Amino acid sequence: GLTLKQGTGTEPNTWKPLDGSVFNVRTGPNYAVNKKKAPSKGSLLEVAAMDSFRTPARVNNIAEHLRMPELPYPVAHWFIVNFQIPNYPPPNPLWGAKKKDGPGWSVVVYCPITPQTWAQCSTATAGAHALLWRFLHADKESNPDELYDRSKLIVQMLNVEDVGMSNTTVKFVKSLNSKPVLTRPTHLVIHADAYTELDVIVHDFSYVAVSGLNSSIGVVGNMKYNLALVLEGKSDDELPEVVLGCAYTNQLDLTKAVPW
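Below the sequence we write its predicted structure tokens.
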């Protein structure tokens, strides 16, 4: 899976690795009261590869159909993020039933977990490593959703004013830019022996979000943004948060996505 090429950050339709410190995350103690944030201390995982596919409908558990990237080091487990992006206008909520499936794209992010990181997570009793271990094994917990609902996205669009979006969409993007957004309840988590997959179902986002995205499809190829996934830390023994994985994408051209 390497249909999106890794670049230096200047070539269109490419991505590059990013240091997690460009994102501010929760820090302790007593975040509920102090609300303090600080740059993440790196990231727990690295992004190794990305794919983009044009799909006739949502593809859940996409990793079962894909071959994992070949890497020059051993991998204990894979963390896969599958962004399911719609390519149709959402029905008006005043007179149309919400549409949650249809043609669109899957943008797939591959994050390998090395044996060293796997071992560190398995023995951690607190902090971001312990929280990641619990998330990866949430299907064995009595209340898996309590962990699944911790997943957050942070998007930093770097050229909001320059991509050609409508004024309404620009205002909406600015209101969320660089702010963490929980993926719940529009996500699905799949556990397999070799991987854990998080499907982010953009089809099921709010009408305003999907409508803004649909109206901007023609200019998505102009966008430059940093993207991170974080697991939400709540208590002091889960803080400080650390970015799970992150990357910079430069002018992602969905028209060049590989047909599924």
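The chain has six helices and 14 strands.
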